[in-house]
Amino acid sequence: MNKISEIPEQTPIAEKPTVEMPADPWRCGACGSLRVSCQVWVDSNTYEVQSMAEDKDDLWCDDCAEHTRQVRESELMSDTVEPWWNDGTTEEDREIITGLNPENFSPKDDRKAFRDACDMWWNGRTNDEKIRLWRQATAPEEE
User: Fold this and answer.
1) Which domain holds residue 46?
2) 3-state secondary structure the chain
3) In the prediction, which pLDDT does 7 show?
């Protein structure tokens, strides 16, 4: 007996059309999430957008579950994430994040070789990866 022929035909589940992400998407200024929304006024007859949200109270982050400021990804990277990596991480932080061991590098020049290797590792990450690492490292301690 052929069991496969006894399987009822399945109705395919309609796939949600994928929306292409803009090159420089909006992100939450507090956590870096892409899951952000803005309230807009739309003309009921023409469905044209009349005005965009200008007030923080009209902006929302699903991950923060509150009203937050939104910034372009490029702004988040240049004003927050990259400065955090360059100035806000210690040698110990970089060792934990990268998995590199400073003891494997020459202690000359104040461990410049280790810092350079960490920077090469960092520069090999995508913006999404960098934002995820920044978010994990700067998240408040849960009690």
Assistant:
1) 26-138
2) CCCHHHCCCCCCCCCCCCCCCCCCCEEECCCCCCCEEECCEECCCCCCEEECCCCHHHEEECCCCECCCEEEHHHHHHHHHHHHHHHCCCHHHHHHHHCCCHHHCCCHHHHHHHHHHHHHHHHCCCHHHHHHHHHHHHCCCCC
3) 54
